[in-house]
Design brief:
Elements (H helix, E strand, L loop, with lengths): L1 E2 L7 H6 L6 H14 L5 E7 L6 H14 L3 E6 L17 H24 L5 E7 L6 H4 L2 E4 L5 E4 L13 E5 L2 E2 L4 E3 L8
Parallel strand pairs: 1-2, 2-3, 6-9
Antiparallel strand pairs: 4-5, 4-7, 5-6, 8-9
Length: about 190
């Protein structure tokens, strides 16, 4: 799992943010990483509504997100912070526009994440069991942990099998990839 902050897919916005890279260079780095580590799950950070962001700039961000196929994205709505250079910039994007763009970005990324997680359906995955990863674990009688690429996995333990503890490795088969996690129920798992 690698975290590679994109911030924006628009070269004009990246320049205003004072980032040293541009979108094609960023995508080229992703291609190099994926050639060396084909199973790498890459996450990113994206800010929507940076001052001066136009509709075309936002569409460029959506284009890069579609091409990059991030496993996960931490998405943020820009808001001015007093004392920062961006807070003093002209062309602040109206909050309603930022919100609408943010919702569109989240919808695109959720579809990409879901497609990536569904690719795990039917596969066996090793899970590092962790306490507190699944907020509904108690109610669902599931355990949770992280796959080698840091994807969140919720799973049940077959009846009569030894229950793994935090820090243990469990091997599970994934019958369902959800938008934000993988699910392995006891019926699909011969043991943990």
């Amino acid at each position: 799992q690698l975290h590679m902050p994109l911030q924006s897919g628009s070269d004009a916005v990246l320049k205003r943010m004072r980032r040293a890279y541009r979108s094609e260079r960023f995508l080229g780095i992703l291609d190099t990483v994926r050639a060396a580590i084909p199973e790498a799950a890459i996450s990113t950070d994206i800010i929507v509504g940076f001052p001066g962001e136009t509709d075309a700039d936002f569409e460029a961000t959506l284009d890069v997100v579609r091409r990059a196929r991030f496993a996960q994205a931490y998405t943020f709505q820009y808001s001015p912070r007093p004392g920062t250079p961006a807070a003093e910039m002209a062309d602040q994007v109206p909050k309603a526009v930022v919100k609408e763009r943010y919702e569109r970005l989240v919808a695109v990324q959720e579809q990409i994440s879901w497609e990536g997680n569904r690719a795990f359906e039917g596969r066996e995955v090793k899970v590092l069991v962790a306490a507190g990863e699944g907020r509904k674990d108690g109610a669902t009688s599931r355990l949770s942990g992280r796959a080698p690429d840091n994807r969140l996995v919720h799973f049940t333990v077959p009846e009569g099998a030894e229950r793994p503890r935090p820090g243990d490795l469990a091997t599970v088969t994934i019958p369902y990839g959800a938008p934000h996690h993988l699910v392995a129920d006891a019926a699909a798992n011969g043991g943990s």
